[in-house]
Amino acid sequence: PAHIHLVIKAPGYQRLQLQVVFDDDPAMDDHWREWATREGYPILKLESTGEKFQSGRLNIVLRN
Prior knowledge:
By secondary structure, this protein is α+β, with helices and mostly antiparallel strands. Helix content is about 15%, strand content about 30%. The chain contains one helix and five strands, in the order ββαβββ. Strands 1-2-3 form a three-stranded mixed beta sheet. It has a two-stranded antiparallel sheet with strand order 4-5. The longest helix has 10 residues, at about 30-40. The radius of gyration is 13 Å and the shape is flat. The termini are far apart.
């Protein structure tokens, strides 16, 4: 499935590495949904914001 890799670092917090996958991706079958859930990777639901654009929101919490 299509995905984005994120590595998030901030002083005083644990480094966080994620793969964000997309809910409406045709390749997101049951296997990949189970994998993303098991690994703790977010499955982002996108919304149309115009003819050519989509947006989604992902809240990230860092641990210290």
